Every structure is written in C-alpha cells, then in structure tokens.
C-alpha cells in the first residue's frame, strides 16, 4: 500500500520500536532511496511502494543476531542494505559498506554523510575479495542478496577474525545451500553452519539467515596486497 500522494509506502507501525533513536535517520534514508536512489537506478521504481517493509525494516530486523559493540562488514551492500538500516537501528555497531560499483559508492558516501553516520560507517569501494587490508579481522561479515553461499563463504571468511560470524541473509534456499555448499564452507574454515530465523516481531515472514563461525584454524589469509583496493572513505 502506498501513500497516494508520493507513491512511497507509509511508515509501518513497527518502525519506532525497531529503529528507536534511529527513526529519524530511517525516515531520511527511505526518502533518499525514493528520490536519488530511484533517479540513479539503485532502486527500481516499482520498489517505492515497499521500501519500508521489503528493504529497510527487513534489513534492520536481523538486529537480534548481531552481538553488541562489534565491527561489521556488509559485502555487496548496493544502496546500503542491510548495513545502513542496521547502523541506524544499532548505534553500537561500526559498519563497513563494501560495494564494487562506482555509482553506488557515490550514493553511499552521500547517504552516510547526510545521515550523520560518518563516525561509524565507512564506505569501501572494491570487490569483497580484495578489501582485506581495509576490512579484515571483522567480528561479523554480513550480506543480502549478493551471491550463492559457496561464493559468500570464500569472500567472507578471509575478512573475519577467528571466532567471527558470517551472517548471510538468505531466502527459502538457506537450508539447501548449507547442504549443497558444505565443502566450500569447510574449505573457507567456516564451521557450525545453521539456519536462523529472526525478526518476526517486525517483519512477516521472518528473516532467514545462514550463520557460521570462522574456526580458529581458518583458511590461510591471502597475502596482503601491495596496493590498496581502489578507494575508501575514512571514518569520522
Ligand atoms: C543484488 S544487489 C544487492 C544489494 C543489497 N545488498 C540489497 O540487498 O539490496 C548485489 C550487489 O552486490 C554488488 N557486488 C557483487 N559482487 C560483488 C563483490 N564481489 N564485491 C562487492 N560487491 C559486489 C553488486 O554491485 C550489487 O550492488
């Protein structure tokens, strides 16, 4: 259902509970997605009537599976999903937003600045598999709608500290992907892969996540690159 005057889905009743002090930022982010995000092709025009429910609330609804006070890397963040809603809902998180496409990176930098998140969110321009120098040793690597699990495992594990968590937002395929990609998870040093369903308080259906832990042995860390991958904006 949309607000007849703007075509943008009205704010759902759960938004206040989910975003708390970040609600004003969430409203501003929805506005940015509905305007610059659509104009620049980051969000399809047909998405405006479900920006809150399908994108912004859905992204932040995973909040309960993220430990407190951790550093998160969101790989393939696109227009900032799930990283920006998570940062808005959880002021204790520091979030690196990793994206390979330049025009998305430009939007992300503008959004992070406009939302006053520069102290906690970094925009990192590069491919997930080549940002180890900027983003490595993270506590959590997350992603949403980016790649099959075997590829996410290979990209995410080298960015995690031992004991860190992969939290990949997945749909109905989650359980099948764990079975299908067991060898890739193993090669990446990711153990205990399981499906977690979360966020049913705020979104229906609840969000399905694959959670796995980087083992202490882990995969061999790629050698440090001599040149940093393209560009990143510093925090603060
Ligand atoms: C389908 S979009 C999903 C974007 C966002 N996570 C969401 O849920 O709306 C996938 C995004 O991943 C980015 N991407 C694909 N491969 C990548 C890689 N290896 N490293 C970084 N970003 C990548 C694409 O440019 C695109 O923005």
UniProtKB/TrEMBL annotation:
The keyword rRNA processing applies. Residues 211-236 are annotated as: Disordered. Residues 222-236 have a biased composition (Basic residues). Its EC number is 2.1.1.-. Keywords: Cytoplasm, Methyltransferase, rRNA processing, S-adenosyl-L-methionine, Transferase. It is found in: Cytoplasm. S-adenosyl-L-methionine binds at residues 76, 81, 128-129, 144. Belongs to the methyltransferase superfamily. RNA methyltransferase RsmG family. Specifically methylates the N7 position of a guanine in 16S rRNA. This is Ribosomal RNA small subunit methyltransferase G. It comes from Nakamurella flava. The lineage of its organism: Bacteria, Bacillati, Actinomycetota, Actinomycetes, Nakamurellales. The gene is rsmG.
């Amino acid at each position: 259902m949309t607000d007849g005057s703007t075509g943008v889905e009205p704010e759902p009743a759960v938004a206040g509970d989910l975003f708390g002090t970040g609600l004003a930022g969430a409203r501003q982010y929805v506005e940015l997605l509905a305007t610059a995000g659509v104009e620049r092709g980051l969000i399809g025009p047909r998405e405006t009537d479900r920006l809150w429910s399908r994108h912004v609330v859905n992204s932040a609804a995973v909040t309960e599976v993220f430990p407190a006070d951790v550093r998160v890397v969101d790989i393939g963040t696109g227009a900032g999903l799930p990283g920006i809603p998570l940062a808005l809902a959880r002021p204790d998180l520091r979030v690196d937003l990793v994206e390979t496409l330049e025009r998305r990176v430009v939007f992300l930098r503008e959004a992070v600045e406009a939302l006053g998140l520069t102290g906690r969110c970094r925009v990192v321009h590069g491919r997930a598999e080549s940002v180890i120098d900027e983003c490595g040793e993270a506590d959590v690597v997350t992603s949403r709608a980016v790649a099959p699990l075997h590829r996410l495992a290979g990209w995410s594990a080298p960015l995690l500290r031992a004991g860190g968590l992969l939290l990949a937002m997945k749909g109905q395929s989650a359980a099948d992907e764990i079975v299908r990609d067991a060898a890739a998870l193993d090669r990446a040093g990711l153990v205990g892969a399981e499906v977690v369903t979360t966020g049913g308080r705020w979104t229906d259906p609840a969000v399905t996540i694959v959670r796995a832990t980087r083992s202490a042995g882990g995969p061999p860390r790629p050698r440090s690159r001599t040149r940093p991958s393209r560009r990143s904006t510093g925090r603060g």
